């Protein structure tokens, strides 16, 4: 007896089958990408070339405070080989994001991206000081930090911050502000008295109005002297760098998009920025002609030289990690300062050493930041000069907290401000 089994097949729809498989493939791929955002840690071959370049490794002299050690910790946590604990997270969060390691890495490990992504994934597990949270919240608002500094200038809150710093070891003058003339000089268009060569816009960011006002004013003055009209757009927001490096990647992306939308509306041929940290962030935006203000001024001076007074006193030059390792404008500061006749530049004996500011790291880990700053300041001979040039606002604010201990008369200035101070002009301030 033969048993006959019959199968009834439905008509095969190849299009549906393909779409269904493709949909499942996309879901699996998306899941893999989400799970493997830290997969680039596998690029690290643990050679150890990064160790001598890392400021926190030099400070702590422990493997877990090095790029190689942090990569190993990120791998172990991501692969669930070790439990997430505050000590492991602290070692990773100590990173300043200076990216010295990336400049020496033979395997091209994207260390900065890995640190940012890890902080983003484990943001809720890392405790931040209340002041950091407040700054990040305010910086995300248009003109938010200026409003915050206006509040902080009130005597009652100053005393509370002073009291809080007693318990948290916050460096003094963490939020140094320069409120002078802010109402009379900020947003608007400043026309050149010379034959107009074009119009540029200035990106001042979230803190420029409050703490980098002098650089804005001096850049406008020099650009006007070179024949450029200067537009300073209203309602500028943070570039997003602080949020990106503090585990808030979505907020950073939102701020970048807001700035891009606003800057795209400008009629100017180019957008100029002051802070290398802001510039590195803004360069991620597409369809915007963005340029370092120092580069633009230097190129303009080569075509139309201005007269600068001869300088006999040397000046000390600090170059930020974002300038050296993100923008990689190796000789820009020295070339700009060399426009001044007779200039003598005092350089650091350890130029790659981070000053410890690290964006908000001077607030997150003030003892670490101050220890690194002391090492940085000691690398200069500051008895020869009363002028200290710093190209990044975050570094400048941090340096101001301790530099008078080496020379009580010293001034910290942006290179553009120092250039403006030496410019010979009938309209000079």
TrEMBL record:
EC number(s) on file: 1.1.99.14
Cofactor: [4Fe-4S] cluster
Keyword Protease part of the UniProt annotation: no
UniProt GO MF annotations: 4 iron, 4 sulfur cluster binding; glycolate dehydrogenase activity; metal ion binding
One Pfam family named in its UniProt record: Fer4_8
Cofactor note: Binds 2 [4Fe-4S] clusters.
Catalytic activity: glycolate + A = glyoxylate + AH2; (R)-lactate + A = pyruvate + AH2
Superkingdom as given in the UniProt entry: Bacteria
Keywords in alphabetical order: 4Fe-4S, Electron transport, Iron, Iron-sulfur, Metal-binding, Repeat, Transport
Cited SUPFAM superfamilies: alpha-helical ferredoxin (SSF46548)
Domain 4Fe-4S ferredoxin-type as annotated: residue spans: 34-65, 86-117
InterPro entries reported in the protein's UniProt record: 4Fe4S_Fe-S-bd (IPR017896), 4Fe4S_Fe_S_CS (IPR017900), Cys_rich_dom (IPR004017), Glc_ox_4Fe-4S (IPR012257), Helical_ferredxn (IPR009051)
Keyword Isomerase appears in the UniProt entry: no
Function: Component of a complex that catalyzes the oxidation of glycolate to glyoxylate.
Record protein name field: Glycolate oxidase iron-sulfur subunit
Species whose genome carries this gene: endosymbiont of Galathealinum brachiosum
């Amino acid at each position: 007896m033969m048993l006959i089994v019959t199968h009834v097949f439905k008509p095969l729809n190849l299009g549906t089958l393909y779409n269904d498989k493709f949909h499942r493939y996309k879901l699996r791929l998306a899941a893999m990408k989400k799970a493997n955002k830290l997969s680039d840690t596998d690029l690290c071959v643990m050679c150890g070339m990064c160790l001598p370049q890392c400021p926190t490794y030099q400070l702590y002299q422990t493997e877990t405070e090095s790029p190689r050690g942090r990569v190993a910790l990120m791998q172990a946590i991501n692969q669930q080989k070790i439990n997430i604990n505050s000590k492991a997270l602290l070692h990773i969060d100590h990173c300043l994001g200076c990216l010295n390691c990336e400049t020496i890495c033979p395997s091209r490990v994207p260390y900065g991206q890995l640190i940012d992504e890890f902080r983003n994934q484990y943001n809720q597990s890392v405790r931040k000081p209340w002041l950091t949270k407040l700054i990040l919240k305010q910086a995300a608002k248009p003109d938010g930090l200026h409003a915050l500094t206006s509040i902080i200038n009130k005597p009652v809150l100053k005393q509370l911050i002073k009291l809080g710093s007693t318990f948290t070891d916050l460096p003094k003058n963490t939020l140094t502000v320069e409120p002078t003339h802010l109402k009379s000089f900020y947003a608007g268009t400043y026309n050149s008295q010379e034959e107009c060569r074009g119009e540029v816009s200035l990106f001042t960011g979230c803190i420029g109005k409050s703490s980098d006002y002098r650089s804005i004013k001096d850049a406008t003055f020099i650009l006007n002297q070179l024949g450029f009209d200067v537009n300073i757009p209203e309602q500028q927001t943070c570039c997003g760098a602080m949020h990106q490096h503090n585990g808030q990647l979505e907020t950073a992306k939102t701020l970048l998009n807001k700035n891009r939308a606003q800057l795209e509306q400008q009629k100017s041929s180019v957008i100029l920025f002051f802070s290398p940290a802001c510039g590195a962030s803004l360069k991620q935006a597409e369809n915007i002609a963005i340029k370092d203000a120092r580069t633009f001024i230097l190129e303009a001076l080569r075509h139309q030289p201005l007269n600068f007074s001869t300088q006999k006193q040397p000046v000390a030059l600090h170059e930020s990690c974002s300038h050296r390792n993100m923008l990689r404008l190796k000789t820009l500061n020295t070339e700009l300062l060399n426009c001044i006749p007779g200039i003598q530049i005092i350089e650091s004996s350890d130029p790659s050493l981070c000053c410890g500011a690290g964006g908000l790291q001077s607030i997150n880990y003030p003892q670490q930041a101050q220890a690194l700053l002391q090492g940085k300041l000691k690398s200069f001979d500051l008895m020869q000069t009363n002028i200290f040039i710093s190209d990044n606002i975050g570094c400048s604010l941090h340096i101001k907290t301790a530099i008078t201990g080496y020379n009580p008369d010293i001034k910290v200035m942006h290179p553009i401000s120092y250039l403006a101070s030496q410019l010979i002009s009938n309209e000079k301030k």
